[in-house]
């Protein structure tokens, strides 16, 4: 056998080995495909048992499938990688917009649902409580310190929870206000699993972003004014979701208003053109005004 034939044979063997390794490395999942939800909002209601879990595209919401899967989040690859042990993260930041009855106490989100490291955020009025589990110790964070007085108001409640696991501190931002930094006595952890669940909630939610580190106040400000700062663990512009019970995915209020304004402008334009000129016999145009 010639040297060229031997080289070709070795290359074929190496390729087959790589393909076999990849087939075991990237198990298929049954999650929903990617969705660009920019300009969309989800409406939930407690009476209908509505709930929704968001996760990266092609990530299965089935906990039995994801039990041994972990995703790197510092740099998003074309395909997920898997580890048998959770990767260490320096913290986590979650930003979202919501609308609800401020008199109602309700959970806002649960990060990494089903895990003993689940992170809960609950709201009532101007107060927020963070806890590591549903029945764990709750830490009150009230954003009452104004740091961005020129930030324009809007109909949405804009919230960012920033957790620094290295320093074991947490802070909450809401619109132009922030809370004091809260030193947490117990260790705050996150498995790195990029899943967030919203349930037992009456209202609308949009623009969810998650980072696997404590973002800076400048990044928080950018989210507050734009809402489109892409999280490196989960972003609203490239996301999958699984719904339970009764929910509604539709255009956000801003997009509804834009569509209504565009329709009104078109209607006025057509009405003006119709009243300005009419056709008369012989095909000539005559000004009716």
Break the fold down into its secondary structure elements and pairings:
Layout: H1 3-25, E1 40-44, E2 51-55, H2 63-66, E3 91-100, E4 106-111, E5 119-124, E6 127-131, E7 138-141, E8 145-146, E9 157-164, E10 169-174, E11 177-178, E12 182-183, E13 196-199, E14 203-211, H3 217-226, E15 234-235, E16 240-244, E17 247-251, H4 253-276, E18 277-279, E19 285-287
Antiparallel strand pairs: 1-14, 1-17, 2-13, 2-16, 3-9, 3-14, 4-5, 4-13, 5-6, 6-7, 8-11, 9-10, 10-11, 10-12, 14-15, 18-19
Can you offer a commentary on this structure?
With 289 residues, the protein is α+β, with helices and mostly antiparallel strands. It is 21% helix and 32% strand. It contains 4 helices and 19 strands. It has helices at 3-25, 63-66, 217-226, 253-276, and strands spanning 40-44, 51-55, 91-100, 106-111, 119-124, 127-131, 138-141, 145-146, 157-164, 169-174, 177-178, 182-183, 196-199, 203-211, 234-235, 240-244, 247-251, 277-279, 285-287. A hairpin with a 2-residue loop joins strand 5 (119-124) and strand 6 (127-131). The termini are far apart. Mean pLDDT is 76; it is low at 17-31 and 70-87.
């Amino acid at each position: 056998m010639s040297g060229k034939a031997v080289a070709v044979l070795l290359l074929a063997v190496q390729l087959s080995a790589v393909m076999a390794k990849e087939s075991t490395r990237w198990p298929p999942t049954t999650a929903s495909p990617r969705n660009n939800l920019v300009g969309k909002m989800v409406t939930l209601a407690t009476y209908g048992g509505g709930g929704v879990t968001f996760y990266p595209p092609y990530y299965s919401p089935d906990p039995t499938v994801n039990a041994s899967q972990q995703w790197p989040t510092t740099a998003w690859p074309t395909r997920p990688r898997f580890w048998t042990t959770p990767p260490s993260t320096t913290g986590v930041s979650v930003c979202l917009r919501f609308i609800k009855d401020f008199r109602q106490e309700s959970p806002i989100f649960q990060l990494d649902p089903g895990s003993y490291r689940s992170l809960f955020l609950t709201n009532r009025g101007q107060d927020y409580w963070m806890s590591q589990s549903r029945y764990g110790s709750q830490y009150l964070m009230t954003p009452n310190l104004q740091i961005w007085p020129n930030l324009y108001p809007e109909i949405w409640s804009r919230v960012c929870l920033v957790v620094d696991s290295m320093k074991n501190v947490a802070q909450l931002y809401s619109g132009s206000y922030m809370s004091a930094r809260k030193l947490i006595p117990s260790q705050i952890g996150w498995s790195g699993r990029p899943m967030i669940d919203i349930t037992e909630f009456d209202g609308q939610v949009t623009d969810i972003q998650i980072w696997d580190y404590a973002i800076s106040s400048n990044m928080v400000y950018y989210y507050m004014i734009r809402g489109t700062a892409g999280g490196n663990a989960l972003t609203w512009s490239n996301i999958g979701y699984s719904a339970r019970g009764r929910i509604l995915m539709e255009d956000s209020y801003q997009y509804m208003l834009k569509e209504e304004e565009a329709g009104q402008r078109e209607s006025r334009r057509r009405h003006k053109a119709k009243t300005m000129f009419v056709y008369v016999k012989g095909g000539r145009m005559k000004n009716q005004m």
